[in-house]
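Retro notes - structure team

What went well: the batch runner handled both jobs without manual restarts.
What didn't: labels got mixed up in the shared folder, which is why I'm recording both outputs here explicitly, each with its sequence directly above its tokens.

Job 1
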Amino acid sequence: MPNADPAAPLTRLSLAEQVRDRVREAIICGEFSEGSTLPEPVIATRYRVSRAPVREALIALEREGLITFNDRGRSRVIELTPRVFEELVAVRVALEGPAARLAAVAGGSKLAAALEENVRQQGEAATYRELTQLDVAFHESIVRAAKNDRILAAWLTARSVFEFWLAAAFRDVELAIAPRTLAVNSHRRLLKAIVASDPDQAEKAAVAHINRWRSYLPSAARTTTSEATK
């Protein structure tokens, strides 16, 4: 039975949550590559835990969309296929467009200052991982500023896959000037519309920004796309 003793020591995260966070980071950083299997004994040994929290962590990551289970209960990291990319784009357009519209009305000076600082840091990011985290945080700030719980809840279900894809895209081009400039300039256009409290322009800028990233698909997805069109 669960320990309900109020005097029991509290921790910020359960063991399963800690394993979940570490496996998620390993997936996003490419340590566990696309399509690779995640055997529970291997994960348990890697993080020096029993298999029970590993299983719980993997189930949580399945809910986030980062892994899948086959009929035998074996887990595998998803592959960033064109289908995954297009589904992600569709979800983001459907959610972030309206969120930007709402944020332009409700955000205020505090949001504007936070986004401006975020964009400044993007321009100075030293690693692809830092740039990825800043990029995701930029969009999450806008979604949260919309103050719509349903939009936020739906967006959070796609957050991990978004971060996985974005990290792969930035890692693929090794922090080249073009994608960094694209991200910063595109974010500035969206920021400008939000600061101006222009909901129509904010929504248009958000949608255009999301669609503009098609030119920076991760290499694996680009290859699959080109082969499919032959």
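Job 2
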Amino acid sequence: MTRPRGALRVRVRGEGPQSYSVMVGSGLLGAEGGPIARLARGRDAALIVADAGLPTQLVEAVESRIAGVGVRVARVGVRAQERRKSLATLELVLAAAAAARLDRGGLIVGLGGGVVTDLAGFAAAVYRRGVDSVLCPTTLLAMVDASVGGKTGVNIEVGAAGTGAGAPRLLKNMAGAFHHPRLVVCDVAALASLSLRQLRAGLAECLKHGLVGAGAADAGLWGFTQRAIDRLAHEPLHERTLAALVGRHAAYKARVVAADPKERARGGAVGRMALNLGHTFAHAIETLPGLRWPAPGGAGPAVRGPLLHGEAVGLGLIAAADLGESLRRAEPGLALAVEGALGRAGLPTRVGGLPASDQVIDRMLDDKKVLGGRLRVIVPTRARRAALIDGPDRGLVARAIDRLRA
């Protein structure tokens, strides 16, 4: 019998009476009588939406625990790629739920990284107008960010040859819904299934939180995160460090979500939009083809794009800090400090092959925060908080982008 090790619980309060737990520990997914089995008990059926690249034994362990409490279990595999995070894949998941005769008391379980948890959460939001979900993130990025807070969604691809709509481009999370899960289970033992590159990508989201931590009563989050990164540089799968990192960042995000559940802060407050720090730049560059950057530590040949989401977020943090400095919102040297932290984490700080800055800015105008055709960008401030810049000077934005060029 598998027993979880060192489990801790973070409570997340959504809109109104909604609340749920984020469980963090090692061995949680394979635990007999564990949190997933307890939530599934008494239901007729469950659908597992799993990353097709996960180890078979991990998926089967979750399936076995749910079936072990008398619940029918169906499974659908999806490829964890941004272009697969689509309406077409959503339809496949919904069809699998219908084929399994999942009723309104059914359960959808998302098992994988952010692509999978976003898809599973969106499917739960719209299937039969809403069913319960459990999210089991298996990447560091999904544990500290994507699976917590109730945001779900898919990307939309627009533009095609011969249509006059320009080159095809992927619009991130352009369709979605707020739908909080009933439970999030973060089993840090599952991180052993990741490549080192995938593991490192999640550290960028941790640094993002640290840059604006004071906005949710954690001004020490930046320093804590850097110390954890330094420890993980020597021992990437150190479970106590990973569990502490996930737990503290989940608690930070829980406070942000509780204060502004649906990103509707008023009175000039940034609220939940602080979590978009770096993302306006990141979404514009992460799907670009032909990018290249040095391997971590200069070991081995150059890495070629596309970027992983976390890698793009890291670059976006540098650009956002540079813009914040130019606008005198952030302290001088912050962008350099962000570069240093990313470098120690083994993440890229410069990329070759970026198109002209005007082209990148045009892609940034696809961002969900754009209003009335005006670009709006989150930047970090001196006080470890965030500021929303409405209509920043295009030249300063271009300068921030140019800082990312190898």
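One thing worth noting from job 2: The two ends are 51 Å apart (CA to CA).
We'll revisit the folder naming next retro.
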